[in-house]
Amino acid sequence: MSSDQQKQRAAEAAVEYVADGCVLGVGTGSTVNHFIAALVRRRVPIAGAVSSSEASARLLREARINVVELNSSGDLDLYIDGADEATRHLKLIKGGGAALTREKIVAAASRRFICIADQSKLVDVLGRFPLPVEVIPMARSYVARQLVKLGGQPVLREGVITDNGNQILDVHNLSILDPAATEAAINQIVGVVCNGIFARRGADLLLLGTDTGVEVLKP
Ligand code: 5RP
């Protein structure tokens, strides 16, 4: 079974957790695209969705789902999103789709965060996937030098501007043995908007699509 089919499995399983009439937090990426498609196919009657990206907001509107601003929704019961890497403790790396800042905001504002992913995303230690860091453009070089001091090798994601008008540095070769500490250390660098480690607010449940079904992991 392909990783895309595994993503679809996890996405289908996530639909079961969505309550009728809720305003749902919706993330970004190919796994979430499967999730939006499944929501529509199964006609789940949600009141609306808060989206973590313009890309997902477009898809939701195309599906005639009411897209709501987080500023008017209040806290959400549930946020569904994918990940680039996940540990068994449900600490994540996200941001492969450059939506990490809005994803972190919607996750923070949600009582429950269910992560959906294919099996390849499960790792023992975070950091094989280059860590996305969103930076204010004028601070890019300064931030890059500080990231080198932390042991990483930052590479500018060419041609990408985030929904917030910023740039992304992908940091290679960071050894993230203490995800919460690394998340905090990078956030301390002036000019960093957000980094893609989701440790302080990790997921509450991980639905992992596998060849044989969906594995449900709790922290
Ligand atoms: C976007 C993200 C995505 O959740 C992450 O990149 C996983 O994407 P996909 O579902 O396409 O594998 O963090 O910023």
What key phrases describe this protein's structure?
four-stranded antiparallel beta sheet, globular, Alpha-Beta Plaits, alpha/beta, 2 domains, binds ribulose-5-phosphate, 219 residues, 13 strands, Rossmann fold
Short description:
This protein has 219 residues and is an alpha/beta fold.
Structure explained in plain terms:
The chain is of the alpha/beta class and 219 residues long. The protein has 2 domains: 139 residues, Rossmann fold (3-Layer(aba) Sandwich); 66 residues, Alpha-Beta Plaits. The strands form 3 sheets. Strands 2-1-3-6-12-13 form a 6-stranded mixed sheet. A 4-stranded antiparallel sheet has the order 8-9-7-10. α2 links the parallel β1 and β2. α1 crosses α2. The model has no long low-confidence stretch (mean pLDDT 98). The structure holds ribulose-5-phosphate. The site of ribulose-5-phosphate has 17 residues, from α2 and α5.
